[in-house]
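Appendix B, Record 12. Input sequence as logged:
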Amino acid sequence: MLRGEPYLANDPALLEERKRCRLVCERFNATSFGETAARRAILDELLGQIGEDAEVMAPFECDYGYHITIGARTFINYGAVVLDGASVTIGDDVQIGPGVQLLTALHPLDPVERRRGTETAKPVTIGDGAWLASAVIVLPGVNIGADTVIGAGSVVTKDMPAGHLCFGNPCRVIREIRN
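Logged structural output:
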């Protein structure tokens, strides 16, 4: 799965891992916002890595959790969905708006293979300082460059370069961002 090769999503070991993750997500999402230490401890248990002063708002959903790396000072707003069959790397100082989806899973076009539960997965990377506005969807295998802004509602189907404003469906580069 992590090598990008086909796997069976209904494999009993993977089903058990997703069940464990689901239960940890439920605990996180049910924990009061005021219970800062408990929320952080759950995220430390759930995620592969979470940087200093990073914040994740509930509800938060993911498939495995341990394939997700979140950098320092990153903020993930309400309703984020991260399907992490492959690695998802979110850099430092990233802003992720409400309802953002980071997706790594790919399903085959062949209906027989889909019914079998065959999937593949490709990693997603979000560069340092990027901002993904509300309801952005990032598809498998996409890299978003550092300091890039992705406009609300965009569907990102291919890599976006560093330091650019990008938006649309499909998402496209609009212009360079200058300081």
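The radius of gyration is 16 Å.
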